[in-house]
């Protein structure tokens, strides 16, 4: 899994773009570019949108190193093992959609990190 700080930074970037009525995916892509994880922009965009839908309001961001309760919940949902239904009960179909977004985000993060590690190993190996 991505370090929680990366997830929180991406979510804060997403929230900031939404607040300023800017497109979220280009903002996320810029945020994730330094980590070679640009491909995660669409999945994080979808997760954040469905997370807000489940909350029924915009999620609240913390300041600097201090996480908001919403950010702590977001990280807990993505890192598991808490189930979404116990941690964030909400009306259906929002709950099922968020469950799918959680699974998709976990899978895409794992695949992306695996590919990034492979690419770095290839570039660092002696020829």
What keyword list fits this structure?
127 residues, globular
Task: Spell out the blueprint of helices and strands.
Blueprint: H1 4-19, H2 24-33, H3 41-55, H4 69-79, H5 84-87, H6 94-124
Helix pairs in contact: 1-2, 2-3, 3-6
Structure, explained:
Helix content is 69%, strand content 0%. Helix 1 (4-19) packs antiparallel against helix 2, helix 2 (24-33) packs across helix 3 and helix 3 runs antiparallel to helix 6 (94-124). It has 127 residues and is mainly α. The radius of gyration is 15 Å and the shape is globular. The two termini are 30 Å apart. The longest helix has 31 residues, at 94-124. The chain contains six helices and no strands. The relative contact order is 0.15.
Brief overview:
The protein is mainly alpha-helical and 127 residues long.
Q: Quick check: average pLDDT?
A: 90
**Measured distance between first and last alpha carbons:** 30 Å
Order of helices and strands: HHHHHH
Shape annotation: globular
Cα radius of gyration in angstroms: 15 Å
Question: What's the number of extended β-strand segments?
Answer: 0
Largest sheet, in brief, is: none
Beta strand %: under 5%
Instruction: Please give the share of residues in helix.
Output: 55-70%
Structural class, please? mainly alpha
Query: Helix count?
Result: 6
Uncertain runs are none
């Amino acid at each position: 899994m991505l370090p929680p700080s990366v997830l929180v930074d991406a979510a804060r970037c997403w929230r900031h773009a939404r607040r300023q009525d800017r497109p979220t995916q280009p903002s996320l892509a810029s945020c994730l570019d330094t980590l070679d994880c640009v491909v995660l922009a669409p999945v994080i965009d979808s997760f954040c949108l469905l997370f807000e839908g489940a909350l029924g309001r915009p999620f609240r961001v913390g300041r600097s190193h201090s996480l908001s309760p919403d950010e702590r919940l977001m990280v807990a949902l993505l890192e598991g093992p808490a189930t979404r239904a116990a941690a964030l009960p909400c009306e259906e179909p929002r709950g099922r959609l968020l469950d799918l977004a959680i699974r998709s985000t976990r899978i895409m993060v794992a695949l992306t990190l695996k590919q990034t590690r492979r690419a770095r190993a290839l570039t660092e190996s002696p020829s």
